[in-house]
Amino acid sequence: xxxxxxxxxxxxxxxxxxxxxxxxxxxxxxxxxxxxxxxxxxxxxxxxxxxxxxxxxxxxxxxxxxxxxxxxxxxxxxxxxxxxxxxxxxxxxxxxxxxxxxxxxxxxxxxxxxxxxxxxxxxxxxxxxxxxxxxxxxxxxxxxxxxxxxxxxxxxxxxxxxxxxxxxxxxxxxxxxxxxxxxxxxxxxxxxxxxxxxxxxxxxxxxxxxxxxxxxxxxxxxxxxxxxxx
Length: 230
Description:
The protein is an alpha/beta fold. It has helices at 14-26, 37-46, 63-73, 88-96, 109-130, 160-171, 179-187, 192-208, and strands at residues 6-10, 30-34, 51-55, 79-83, 101-104, 134-137, 140-143, 148-151, 154-157, 176-178, 215-220, 224-229. 45% of the residues lie in helices and 24% in strands. The radius of gyration is 20 Å and the shape is elongated. The model has no long low-confidence stretch (mean pLDDT 88). It folds into 2 domains: 2-130, 3-Layer(aba) Sandwich (Rossmann fold); 134-229, Winged helix-like DNA-binding domain superfamily/Winged helix DNA-binding domain (Arc Repressor Mutant, subunit A, Orthogonal Bundle), CATH 1.10.10.10. Strands 2-1-3-4-5 form a 5-stranded parallel beta sheet, sandwiched between helices. A 4-stranded antiparallel beta sheet has the order 6-7-8-9, covered by helices on one side. The chain has a 3-stranded antiparallel beta sheet with strand order 10-12-11.
């Protein structure tokens, strides 16, 4: 199963990082490597990963801070902490941040592989169980796979970005979709120009959904958007 697993490895120990990277690659994983938290966050913001392996003690940005920043833009990608610490308080802090597992150095490479495979398998199963190819939004039916928004006999073919954005809004229906998460997932970068571009797509989606007055696509000031369906 691991031939398609994309791993972000964030480890400041060059020797250990190189060994881990080589071992994971030999086992069939696709590995991107970063040597501090800031570099790790930059790489995470540009690419979709199946799992992140994060060292806790790092320069520029420690692993806990990196995990917090990751969770501001991505709620689902699992991560596992690598640390020389074995204190209970540190483990508790890691799990509070949403860690899926916690490995204390020194550790067995084979054990790490087993844990990574188990986490990714569990995550993918949850994604499959939660996957919904078709959404009912008021009087509309949204088919994500076909990129069609339909109401009665009228169909609107969506562009790729319209489709991806409406899909995220539907998954988070009646909840706030954070602007940074949408930008990172769809545009791969949350810069000013992409942000303005997303505002244009939000306006277009409002136009497509205006036939049903029970639907509101609202701006949540300073946070993001909410697809509100009464």
